[in-house]
């Protein structure tokens, strides 16, 4: 189980610290005291050089893309403060807490990136009856070639592969996420499918989890770090409109007061936001 954060601006390059403020940005980072199995981010940026400029190599891109992943906890990674101050018109950040014995290797660190899309997931896709993770289910209907393209070896990589398959068939990003969750729920109905998907134009944030109660393991883990006040709404995602246009959304785990504009995203709903204009809307799964 992991902590997710994503934002889409009105086309302006804003850093994580710009979006959250210094105090909350540091609170988000300190969650890696618990979610200490590495971190990663993907940023899409308005380029600082002329687009399509021929400088001797490939022409400069329409959108600059940066992906960083590490098996070091964010609170100990010296790169994290540098990256969190980098401006981007859209960004997603992931703090990992590995589940189901999935290995702590760079291939399983998120966000995954393929076909210009970055993806991250908060959940453990396992059977409620046997406890076995989806990675052990070799009969599950996922395109294994696309799965290999994600670079991952985890349940989250399978989730992403299902989305990619539908995007390649011509579905929109929100519809691709919806169809992937519908298929996964046939086999693993009680798993959490909270996720964020980002393209160079759009951010999709989904809250989708059948279980409302928090596991004893999570509660005990948070209590052991003196952070039990953040355990009761572990699967909740909240969002806040940015003052300059756009939206930020995040898993629980740091201060998200309603008086500062934070609103709970209803279950089985998603945010669809443009990182070009900042316009966003909610839709059902």
From TrEMBL:
What's the protein here called? Class II glutamine amidotransferase
Domain Glutamine amidotransferase type-2 residues, every copy: 2-285
Q: Which organism's genome codes for this protein?
A: Bifidobacterium avesanii
Tell me a Gene Ontology molecular-function term this record carries. transferase activity
InterPro entries membership: GATase_2_dom, Ntn_hydrolases_N
Entry keyword set: Glutamine amidotransferase, Transferase
Fetch the Pfam families from UniProt: GATase_6
- Establish whether keyword Transmembrane is in the entry: no
């Amino acid at each position: 189980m992991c902590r997710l954060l994503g934002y889409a601006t009105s086309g302006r390059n804003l850093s994580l610290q710009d979006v959250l403020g210094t105090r909350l940005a540091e609170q988000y980072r300190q969650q890696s005291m618990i979610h200490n199995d590495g971190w990663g981010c993907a940023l899409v940026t308005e380029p600082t050089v002329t687009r399509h400029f021929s400088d001797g190599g490939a022409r400069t891109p329409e959108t600059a893309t940066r992906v960083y992943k590490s098996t070091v906890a964010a609170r100990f990674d010296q790169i994290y403060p540098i990256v969190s101050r980098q401006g981007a018109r859209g960004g997603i950040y992931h703090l990992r807490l590995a589940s189901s014995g999935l290995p702590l290797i760079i291939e399983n660190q998120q966000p995954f990136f393929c076909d210009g899309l970055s993806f991250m997931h908060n959940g453990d896709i396992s059977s409620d009856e046997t406890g076995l993770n989806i990675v052990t289910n070799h009969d599950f209907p996922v395109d294994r070639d696309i799965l290999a393209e994600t670079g991952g070896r985890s349940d989250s990589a399978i989730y992403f592969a299902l989305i990619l398959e539908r995007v390649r068939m011509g579905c929109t990003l929100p519809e691709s996420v919806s169809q992937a969750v519908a298929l996964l729920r046939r086999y693993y109905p009680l798993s959490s499918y909270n996720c964020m998907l980002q393209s160079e134009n759009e951010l999709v944030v989904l809250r989708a989890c059948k279980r409302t109660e928090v596991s004893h393991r999570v509660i005990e883990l948070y209590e052991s770090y003196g952070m039990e006040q953040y355990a009761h709404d572990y699967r909740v995602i909240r969002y806040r409109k940015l003052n300059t246009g756009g939206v930020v959304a995040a898993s629980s785990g740091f201060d998200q007061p309603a008086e500062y504009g934070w609103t709970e995203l209803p279950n089985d709903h998603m945010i669809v936001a443009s990182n070009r204009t900042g316009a966003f809307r909610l839709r059902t799964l």
